[in-house]
Amino acid sequence: MISPARVVLGIGSNLGDRIALLAAARRRLEETGSFLIMRASSIVESEPIGPPQPRYLNQVLIGETRLPPEELVAAAKRIETELGRRAALPWGPREIDIDVLAYGALQVRSQSITLPHPEIAGREFVLAPWAEIDADAHVPGLDRTVAALLADLRRDAGRAGRILATVADEGRREMKIVRTLAAVREWRDAVPAAERVGFVPTMGALHEGHRALVARARDECAHAAVSVFVNPFQFGAGEDFASYPRDEAGDAEAARAAGADLLWFAGAGDLYPTTPVVRIDFPDLAARLCGRSRPGHFAGVALIVAKLFHIFRPTRAYFGEKDFQQLQIVRRLARDLDFDVEIVACPTVREGSGLALSSRNRRLSAAGRNAATALYRGLNEARRAFARGERSVQALRATAERCFRAEADVEIEYLELVAPDTLAEAAAATAESVLLVAARIEGVRLIDNVVLGRAEEPPL
Ligand code: PAF
After folding, report:
1. How close is the Cα of 1 to the center of ligand 1, in Å?
2. How confident is the model at residue 91 (pLDDT cuts 50, 70, 90)?
3. Which of 77, 134, 377, 423 is most deeply buried (CB count within 10 A of its CB)?
4. 202 lines ligand 1 (CB under 6 A)
C-alpha cells in the first residue's frame, strides 16, 4: 500500500445552502476514502471574483490521501457533480468547488492538473484559513510560508477575493490526527499539568459504543484522546487478526463527531519496534472465561494497555462493560502497577434489538445478526428470573440457555455466573453477580454479559 501524502484542499460554495454543501463535501471526501481530514479551518466569507454573483464561503482542509494526484482531482470532480454542481462558467457561481491546493512538495503543470494551485498567492480566502491551521507551511515552488504570503497579499489594498467575515466555526475540525509516537508525546507534553486527559484505547472500526466512551471522556476531561491499534499480541494463532475490520476514514469521522481532541493511528513500528519480552500475567483472572479459549489474549491486552497508559498518562481511561473480563483485568493492572489513572466503566451500548455493539458485528450477515440477538434475550430472561426471586445458578443458566438453543446458529462457548471482582463462579446468585456468555455465530465470536441486579440498558 502506498504511504499517504499530505494534501491541502480548498473548498468553496456560493449557491444553495452553502454551509450544508461544505459539510457534505467534507463528509463525501472522507466517506469515499479519498481524503482523511486532519485539520479544518474556520469558514470565511469572501467577495466573489469575476462576474456579479453571491458571496463565497471558503474553507481549507489539511489531510491525507493515498490517491495519486490525478485520481484525487478526479474524485473531487465526482463529488462536485454528486453535490449538484452544474458545468460552470470560468469564475461563475457554483454550488461546490473542491480544489487541490497542494499535494506534498509536488510541482506539476500538465493539461489536467497544476500543483500547487496557481492562484494561491493572490487569494486571501485561501491563505487566511490555511494560515489559521498551518501558518508555517511552505508552499511548494513559492518558497515562502503561508503566513508570509498572506502578509504580503494583505499589503495590497486592491486585492480581489477579500475576506468579509468569519462565518462559522461549524464543521471546523479541531481534532488532531497523528501517526507517530513522537507526535503523541508532543501533544501530551503540551497539556498543562492541572488539566485532565481522558483516554479511550481502541482497535478501531469505531461504533456507537466507542463514541459513547469518547463523548464521556470529552465531557469529563479537558482533553480527550483516542488510540487506534489492532494489537497483534492479543490475537491467538488462527484468530481473526487479519480479518479484523479496519476503517480509518470512519474512525476519524466517529472520533471527531464524539468530540475527541487527538486521534492516534498507531503503528506496530512505534509500539513494538522489537518483539516484547515483558509479559503481564493474571493467573486467576485471565485463566477464566475468555482466557480458556484465548490463551495469551489478556497478557496481550495488558501489555498494550500498560504501554498506552505510559504514553498518554491519562487522568481517566474509559472501557466498555461489554468486555467485562478485560475491564476487571485493566483495573487490576492499574492497581498492581500503580498507574495514576481512574478506570471508568461505561455501560454496554446496544442496538434496538438488544444486540451489544461490537466491531465484529460488521462481519455478520443479516440472519447472523438476527440470531445474535438471542444472546441478550437469554441473559435478560435470566435477569428477569432473578428479579422474580430465582437464586439457583443452574436454574438461571438454564433459563438463558433455553433462549440460545432456540437459535440453531448460536454455538455457545461458555455461559457463567461469576463474582464481579474475582470472576470466580458464583455459588448462589446475588444482585452483583455477572452472567457472561461467549458464542460463535457464523464463525464470529461474540461476547455479552449482564449484572443480575441491574436494570436493562436502554437500546440506542
Ligand atoms: O477493547 C479493545 O478494543 C482492546 O482490547 C484494547 C483495550 C484497545 C487493547 O488493544
Report:
1. 25
2. confident
3. 423
4. yes
Q: Crossing angle, helix 146-154 and helix 124-134, to 10 degrees?
A: 140
Of the candidates 304, 181, 254, the one whose C-alpha atom is nearest the C-alpha of residue 27 is 254
Residue 305 Cβ contacting ligand 1 at under 6 Å: yes
Smallest CA separation from ligand 1 atom 6, residue: 202
For residue range 227-282, list pLDDT tens digits in order: 999 999 999 999 999 999 999 988 998 998 888 999 999 999 999 999 999 999 99
Distance 297 CA to ligand 1 centre (A): 11
Q: Quickly name the fold that domain 176-346 has.
A: Rossmann fold (3.40.50)
Per residue in 62-71, pLDDT (tens digit) is 999 999 999 9
The label of the residue with cell 485520481 reads 71
Question: Where do the structural domains in the chain lie, given as residue ranges?
Answer: 5-166, 176-346, 359-451
**Does ligand 1 lie within 6 Å of residue 325's CB atom?**
no
Report the percent of the chain where pLDDT is more than 90.
75
Residue 32 has pLDDT above 90, yes or no: no
Ligand 1 atom at shortest distance from the alpha carbon of 230: 10
Atom 9 of ligand 1, nearest CA residue: 301
Nearest CA to ligand 1 atom 8: 202
CATH code given to domain 359-451:
3.30.1300.10
- Of the residues 117, 207, 210, 297, only one is catalytic, namely 210
Place of cell 492516534: 264
CB 161 within 8 A of CB 49: yes
Q: Give CATH superfamily name and number for 5-166.
A: 7,8-Dihydro-6-hydroxymethylpterin-pyrophosphokinase HPPK (3.30.70.560)
> What single-letter DSSP state applies at residue 29?
H
Cα of 251 from ligand 1 centre, angstroms: 15
Mean pLDDT of the chain: 92
**Topology alike, domains 176-346 and 359-451:** no
